């Protein structure tokens, strides 16, 4: 346990009691060193998560409850105003992804927390997925040698939760964040195509490709018009490929085989052969629970586990580039 038994629990407030907020409420209540003392949602409490807490109408009522920390799970369009109010009040805050509805708004939020010396985190929960955490550790340990490419596929039916954004800001934002994190470098450029097929205002399909500053090439397929669920990240490098399935939390390693090649024409080409396949045994904890512990620890002084607001803004810059690339049919340099 990372907090001492005698440490005072953080007084935590939650605003936004929708499909994500209800899970945050459950996890905060179960997290050592955190007490959920106030909940707010102007739209009501349709999942009944308040329990014996009064349902507060807005962020100002939440702040008045006297908070050490807050979790923001309102729709994206409200992230900026809610987060800025919490910063002004001196409350350490984690905001659900993406940090805000525009890059400029995200920058204002990040700056407000930095100016006050407060912990500001963004809820990119995929980074806490056991398969991706194990993958990152193994890449850091050099088990793949040089990394060549990262590709992600995030496909499935339309999510039941009401979304005020398109598939790029809602879902592709996860893949952009996790790709830069897993590969250890930001995006250098990106090229994308989007489609509008469901009659909604925003795009519902995207394919994007790009290059990171360390030369790793990346590709993302994201949509919510596929009748099966797929959440996969594949990292290929000189020693083989890792396949992370974030639906099941499984990580599989496909090794490059070692076979002598006697055929002269092929021998001078550095190809690969199929080698052993290993499904790795990894500890599987609920990602959201780990994410809350990282936030708690950051408030306690160890910020190594959180996704910072500055990183959240960087991801929004790539999101902007994806949408610009699709709209203008060109590769966008970052």
TrEMBL record:
Superkingdom assignment: Bacteria
GO molecular function, one term: nucleotide binding
InterPro entries for this protein: Gfo/Idh/MocA-like_OxRdtase_N, Gfo/Idh/MocA_Oxidoreductases, GFO_IDH_MocA-like_dom, NAD(P)-bd_dom_sf
Domain GFO/IDH/MocA-like oxidoreductase span(s) in chain numbering: 133-242
Domain (Gfo/Idh/MocA-like oxidoreductase N-terminal): residue spans on this chain: 10-124
Protein name: Dehydrogenase
Biological classification of the source: Bacteria, Bacillati, Actinomycetota, Actinomycetes, Actinomycetales
